[in-house]
Amino acid sequence: MARILIIEDETEIASYLRRGLHLEGYQVDVAYDGLRGLEMAAASNYDLVVLDLMLPGVDGLEVARRLRAESSVPIIMLTARDAVRDRVAGLEAGADDYLVKPFAFEELLARIRAQLRRQQASQHQEVLRFANLTLDTRSRELRVGERRVELTAKEYDLLELFMRHPNQVLTRDIIYDRVWNYDFGGESNIIEVYVRYLRQKLEANGEPRLIHTVRSVGYILREDG
């Protein structure tokens, strides 16, 4: 039975989510502010966190950053803000998914199940290798040659997608769907931003470029020459 931590300061929403998730068979704890949520997360091993963006004291973005610094627990962020820049900020802080209020409980439940399936699958996966890259999918550790490289949650997800499909062009739509579970539309450059982050880390010591742009289509992981 999965354990879920809800960090939400609106008591009616928190109670609604607690009841609904209990009925679905989950163990649920609730924190009503960011600091208490961090304390509870540190004291227990949760399988997933549902995190409100607007919290008193420590806000949701800072909570996500601190959680992600210590754990790979899936984080679904809830917010009343639906602008692309707000979604991007939440994802860059470490959230794995993003849901705008008001939302249907069935959609949140589907997203929770998807994140739990992904987390469970990652615990039984293998070491991926390509060129000078070694990605341990259990520990989520990357090595470039002998160099250990720290990745954020989304950097890891993006690189894992590339390494599971080497020498294959991945379109922007595929990347959005597999990594962010969203259609950000043409106004977002989040893929370009994260590809740039990955390139900086993979090429930090002058290593050859492995992630290449396919103009007007997407990206490909390949060795040149």
Would you mind describing this structure in some detail?
The structure is a single chain. By secondary structure, the protein is of the alpha/beta class. Helix content is 42%, strand content 22%. The chain has eight helices and twelve strands. The protein has helices at 11-23, 34-43, 60-70, 84-92, 105-122, 153-164, 172-180, 190-202; strands spanning 3-7, 27-31, 48-52, 75-79, 97-100, 127-130, 133-136, 141-144, 147-149, 170-171, 211-214, 218-221. The protein has a five-stranded parallel beta sheet with strand order 2-1-3-4-5, with helices on both faces. Strands 6-7-8-9 form a four-stranded antiparallel beta sheet, covered by helices on one side. Helix 6 (153-164) crosses helix 8. The longest helix has 18 residues, at 105-122. The protein is elongated. 28% of the residues are buried. The mean pLDDT is 88.
Give the helices and strands, then pairings.
Blueprint: E1 3-7, H1 11-23, E2 27-31, H2 34-43, E3 48-52, H3 60-70, E4 75-79, H4 84-92, E5 97-100, H5 105-122, E6 127-130, E7 133-136, E8 141-144, E9 147-149, H6 153-164, E10 170-171, H7 172-180, H8 190-202, E11 211-214, E12 218-221
Parallel strand pairs: 1-2, 1-3, 3-4, 4-5
Antiparallel strand pairs: 6-7, 7-8, 8-9, 10-12, 11-12
Helix pairs in contact: 2-3, 6-7, 6-8
Can you describe this structure in just a few lines?
With 225 residues, this protein is α/β, with parallel strands linked by helices. It has helices spanning 11-23, 34-43, 60-70, 84-92, 105-122, 153-164, 172-180, 190-202; strands spanning 3-7, 27-31, 48-52, 75-79, 97-100, 127-130, 133-136, 141-144, 147-149, 170-171, 211-214, 218-221.
